[in-house]
Amino acid sequence: MSGEETRIMHDLPGEVDVVVSPARYRVLRRKIVALMVMVSVIPLLAMAVINLQQYHATLDREVQAPLRALLSKTRNSFELLLAERTSTVSFIASAYSFRDLADDKALNRIFQVMKQKFTGFVDLGLIDTSGVQVTYAGPYSLKGRDYTEQPWFNEVLFKGRYISDIFLGFRKMPHFVIAVQHLTDDGSSWVLRATIDTGQFDRLIASMGLDPESDAFLVNRKGVLQTSTKYYGNVLDQLPFEMPPMSFETTVRTLKDHMGREIYLAYAYFPDTDYVLMAVKPRSVIMRTWNSLRTDMVAVFLAGVFLIMAVAYRITAALVDRLRESDERRELAFRQVEHSQKLSSIGRLAAGVAHEVNNPLAIINEKAGLMKDVLGMGADFPEKSRFEGLIEAILRSVDRCRTITHRMLGFARQMDVKIEDLDVNEIIRETTGFLEREAAYRNIGLHLHLGEEMARIASDRGQLQQVFLNIMNNAFAAVNDGGTISVTTWQKDDATVGITIQDDGCGMSDETQKHIFEPFFTTKKGTGTGLGLSITYGIVKRLGGEIAMQSKVGQGTTFSIFLPVTPPEGASI
């Protein structure tokens, strides 16, 4: 088969020429591999994408749920703290009269008890309806301070109670105020005002147990920080991003802060105050887990794709190789059929030519013999010896032509199977006669060592000629010009004759010897069919014989054939 392209010629009616090209198999292989990879990889890719999205959504929920629960719990603690402190101030306003609270000693005693029972109180003051602080218990000198113009004073008169944002005020330190109005039965009223430091807020936030990269803080509805933060400023600084929409339920949103970080922002507005509790958790915290999983999934996906491609390539390569081998064998089978048809036609032509040539040769031989007899009976004359020499030359040429036609008839007879009594040495001579010209042209020594008193065997002449000719052709192909080929026959025992065909050619490697009798195996790239020795092996086996081979690279090859004198029962020819 040509290395570039092979054309399969179909002689049957209705068939067309088929071109088998290596490029065709490469394209076919690429298409099959691409199809197999697409069919395998696209579902795998879709599943990977869906799984990643589902995992991402689940991971978001898994992060948001604990953050939402923690913020809700902390908000409840804040509300409980504010409610408790408000109830304390309201209880004192209800339990004591204005006269009791207006007494500095009594108010100071009440304040000391409050500080012992409830932490965080800084001072306590009684304010009359005109907004003037009548009495004061605490570390500052605020007695007589007028709060008439303060917004909180009007608000507490309107609502009955007031919880302020954190502010500096007269104290110049962060604090917030709880003020409660008390109405008596006679319609008079007064305001009891308590100041609380922000340490309580800081302790509640610290108790949340956030990881180092997270943050929690309190702001008012205007976005002013009420507690210090890790990343967004100190108390009374403006929050560096917009306030989220109002929601009294704990809500989690995703946004970018002023540092460009993607964050989870959990927040909840307090219903009765301006406070908003917030907790921030960077998405990078969970993205580390996400990226790790994504890297693992991508690695698994790529490994799966590589494995799929490798398996698809190997399977496709095996299938395409078998397809190519099948096409090659089919092509060789058609060539063998064509070759057999040609041989059959040549055989019939050879038989016809041989018969046609033999007739005039017989006439020439007869006339030349007659001329020789006439010259022998006639008187001598000066040119007699010359004419006798010419007649001998004619007779020798006739014998030579007769030998050639005999070989042609022998070749024609091998087309039909026929069991007959044969002399192996005679078949060897006939077969080597076909190769004498090539041996002489290439100066190859063709030596025959034919055993004497060889037993005749029952076999098929044409099949044996084909066996010997196939092996000798291989020997001629293996030896260089000037080489040697020896054919030896001997009687091995009463039931077997042996034939060896030995050459001093290039020899064969051990790997080649393992496959030498396999069909379609050839070392004659581009010229051999790989069928010669396999056919030879089959013929010898069908004749009931054995064939063996010995070879060494650079030293030559020896084929040994052992044929039975009588084919065993069941042998097929």
Portion in strands: 15-25%
**Span between N and C termini?**
30 Å
CATH superfamily of the domain at 419-573: Histidine kinase-like ATPase, C-terminal domain
| CATH arch. level architecture of the domain at 419-573 | 2-Layer Sandwich
The residue fraction in helices comes out at 40-55%
SSE succession: EEHHHEEHEEEHEEEEHHEHHEEHEEHHEE
Based on CA atoms alone, the radius of gyration comes out at: 58 Å
Q: Using DSSP, what is the number of strands?
A: 18
State the strand order across the main sheet: 4-3-7-6-5
Derived from helix and strand composition plus strand pairing, the structural class reads alpha+beta
CATH class of the domain at 419-573: Alpha Beta
Enumerate how many helices there are, as a single number.
Answer: 12
CATH topology (fold) name of the domain at 419-573: Heat Shock Protein 90
Principal-axes geometry comes out as rod-shaped
Largest sheet: 5 strands, antiparallel
Q: pLDDT under 50 segments (min length 5)?
A: 1-19
Mean pLDDT: 82
In short:
With 573 residues, the chain is an alpha+beta fold. Helix content is 50%, strand content 20%.
Describe the model.
The protein is of the alpha+beta class and 573 residues long. It has a domain at 419-573: Histidine kinase-like ATPase, C-terminal domain (Heat Shock Protein 90), CATH 3.30.565. 50% of the residues lie in helices and 20% in strands. It is built from twelve helices and 18 strands. The chain has helices at 22-95, 98-102, 104-117, 151-159, 199-206, 283-377, 384-413, 424-433, 436-442, 461-478, 510-515, 532-542, and strands spanning 6-8, 18-20, 121-127, 133-137, 161-163, 175-183, 189-197, 215-220, 251-256, 262-269, 275-282, 419-422, 445-449, 457-460, 484-493, 496-503, 546-552, 556-564. The strands form five sheets. It has a five-stranded antiparallel sheet with strand order 4-3-7-6-5, with helices on both faces. A five-stranded mixed sheet has the order 13-15-16-18-17. Helix 1 (22-95) packs antiparallel against helix 5 (199-206), helix 6 runs antiparallel to helix 7 (384-413) and helix 8 crosses helix 10. Residues 1-19 have low confidence and may be disordered.
